[in-house]
Write a structure and sequence with these properties.
By secondary structure, the chain is mainly beta. The chain has three domains: 121 residues, Immunoglobulin-like, CATH 2.60.40.10; 106 residues, Immunoglobulins (Immunoglobulin-like), CATH 2.60.40.10; 108 residues, Immunoglobulins (Immunoglobulin-like). It is built from two helices and 29 strands. The chain has a six-stranded antiparallel sheet, with no helix packed on it. A hairpin with a 4-residue loop joins strand 19 and strand 20. The radius of gyration is 41 Å and the shape is elongated. It starts with a helix and ends with a helix. 21% of the residues are buried.
């Protein structure tokens, strides 16, 4: 009987304990989902918590504060068969120390040749100070003697690395060569001299200076001197200077099978008409000559002025009362101005308003009257104050400053007169009474 009793107690205890422990064990046995493995070459950067997007350049995790970037200005480009591949390669040092960066062409299609140039010299390394960037020219061509490129898609890759080899980055360009457009005449024999530019048309105001960048190609096997000249509209100024230099030139020497970048500075005539103007640039050598047409689109000059009819910029006002002055807005430019709005810079608690509040349009030489209402603050002290008014158009603006003399309210003047009269009368009565005594 005792044995049966103890066996019953043991079974109850086992069942009770299993109900408590089994769920806990089951909960502990649940596995969390596997996290994705982190590649060993991933780097975490201070402040971002993530790897920077491409093309971010190379980082040195062992030495904080170093980063280089190599990138093509236009990493994707479509050209025709008769064009050449010429891309701007930007090398940038985002680090805190100067770097010497070496360059190598890592990937190039079969039967192609490529080079990195600066002023006609082949570049394999470049010094880049901290926080600055350098621009080089990458060019590529097929090795065969055919004047046309083969239609297809091509990829080029440039590797940039620091002198110690700790930082490395790459720049990739994808070039697509398409069939040449049908021309009205038969294809001409390739010229020994060519002039090319990426931006043949520039647009700006008539008082701006325009700067074109052209590349002069010497596609002969002989070094040669090139003379530069320009056909321009009357009164215009055109000058030439090597890219990234400040000296002006009329001739330059270009080595065989290389090119030279030249900046063409164009200054319109003082009263040049609004519209499109053409400038023809020519390069002449003993082996041949080439020309290119550049265009400048003038939008006119933008200038407005604010003034009063009499030229007087001062007025008198009383505390808390409105004072008016007429201002005239004049378009002194050669282009129309739109959306001319007005703002003021005034003492605290003063009120300035305009009628009209905005001028929708103002043609060259036109003038519009604007009524300016100025109300000094009621607690303003007597004295002189300055109120500036600004007229802001889409392309021009002008300021005018008014001097406001605040005087006391007229009521206080009459009160003062009454006080003086009362004092005089009181004194007269006092003297009269004393005189009788």
């Amino acid at each position: 009987m005792k044995t049966y009793y103890f066996a019953t107690l043991l079974i109850v205890w086992l069942v009770f304990s299993s109900q408590i422990t089994v769920p806990a064990l089951a909960q502990d046995s649940e596995k969390k989902p596997d996290l994705p493995a982190v590649p060993s070459n991933n780097r975490v950067f201070s402040g971002t918590g993530a790897r920077p997007p491409e093309p971010c350049g190379g980082w040195d995790s062992g030495q904080a504060g170093r980063q280089i970037v190599a990138a093509f200005e236009y990493p994707g480009k479509v050209i025709e068969q008769d064009e050449t591949i010429s891309l701007e390669l930007i090398i940038k040092n985002n680090g805190t120390k100067d770097e010497t960066i070496y360059l190598a062409i890592e990937k190039i299609p079969d039967n192609w040749e490529a080079k990195i140039e600066k002023y006609g010299d082949i570049i394999t390394g470049i010094f880049v100070p901290s926080g600055e960037s350098k621009t080089l020219t990458f060019s590529a061509d097929q090795k065969d003697d055919d004047d046309k490129l083969t239609v297809g898609e091509y990829q080029f890759e440039i590797k940039a690395s620091t002198a110690d080899g700790k930082l490395t980055t790459t720049a990739t360009a994808d070039i697509k060569v398409v069939e040449q457009k049908q021309k009205e005449t038969e294809q001409e024999e390739q010229k020994p001299v060519r002039i090319t530019t990426s931006y043949p048309v520039l647009r700006g105001s008539s008082d701006s200076e325009f700067e074109f960048s052209v590349d002069i190609h010497n596609e002969t096997d002989k070094d040669d001197m090139f003379s530069l000249r320009a056909e321009k509209p009357k009164g215009w100024e055109v000058s030439f200077k090597p890219s990234y230099e400040n000296k002006y030139i009329g001739t330059l020497q270009i080595k065989s099978n290389l090119s030279q970048s030249v900046d063409v500075e164009v200054s319109p005539a003082p009263r040049a008409e609004i519209g499109e103007h053409s400038i023809k640039v020519e390069a002449l050598s003993s082996q041949g000559q080439a020309e290119i047409e550049l265009k400048v689109i003038l939008t006119g000059t933008h200038k407005i002025s604010c003034r009063t009819l009499s030229g007087i910029l001062s007025l008198t006002a009383r505390k808390g009362e409105d004072a008016n002055i007429s201002m005239y807005v004049i378009n002194e430019g050669s282009a129309a101005e739109k959306e001319i709005a007005f703002t003021s810079f005034k003492p605290e608690n003063w009120e300035v308003s305009f009628e009209p509040q905005k001028i929708e349009g103002l043609e060259p030489g036109d003038m519009k009257q604007v009524e300016v209402t100025i109300a000094p603050a009621p607690q303003a002290l007597v004295g002189d104050y300055s109120v500036a008014v600004n007229a802001q158009a889409e392309e021009a603006d002008n300021d005018i400053e008014f001097r406001v003399t605040v005087k006391a309210a007229a009521t206080w003047g009459w009160i003062g007169v009454v006080i003086i009269v009362v004092v005089i009368v009181g004194l007269a009565i006092t003297f009269k009474r004393l005189g009788r005594r």
